[in-house]
Hints:
Structural class: alpha+beta
Helix content: 25-40%
Distance between the termini: 38 Å
Radius of gyration: 19 Å
Oligomer: single chain
Amino acid sequence: TLIQYAGIAYIATFTLQRIEEATSLRTDCLLHEVDEKYGRIAIIRGDTTKTAPEDDARWPTTPSVQVAVDAASSVSRLRMLCAAANPAIGTTADDQANPYLFDRAFEPWAATSGHSYSVRKKPVSFQIVMRMFPKLFDPDQLRITEDDLKIARLLTPNLPIDRFAVGAVWPLAWHQLRRTGAVNMFASGLLSDS
């Protein structure tokens, strides 16, 4: 489960997908297109969830998402073996050939092993993931520094003082992956405003 959450977080960070979009990706989501000018471009393919519904949306991304897709796919395919062996779960041939990258545990010892495959697992908050897996991040690396706070206040002047203070741990949320990615892309100088 940690591998799936880490993989989804990595993919969401480098595609700017909403968490609901990232958790609905399938194992075949990573494509590569070749552009005359830019060469080989990594693309994540999936469903959009908030704007105009689209079941074949595309997000350009970094080639490094390959490791996240591969890791989450490995877990997903192992879980699919368990799901497919349990007729109560109701997997289809398409599900078995191309499972979701992110799903609940279907192992026989898992508390959720009897849920239908068509009932999608909702991701828990980023804060809950951090509590579930306390070794995922080093809390000292997540502490807000004076420089961090200066930059954050330039971008969001109305940050609540009680939650964002020097020495406090950043109160991370899934949506911050989108915001941080957008700020970093704009700051890179590689993208235009349009």
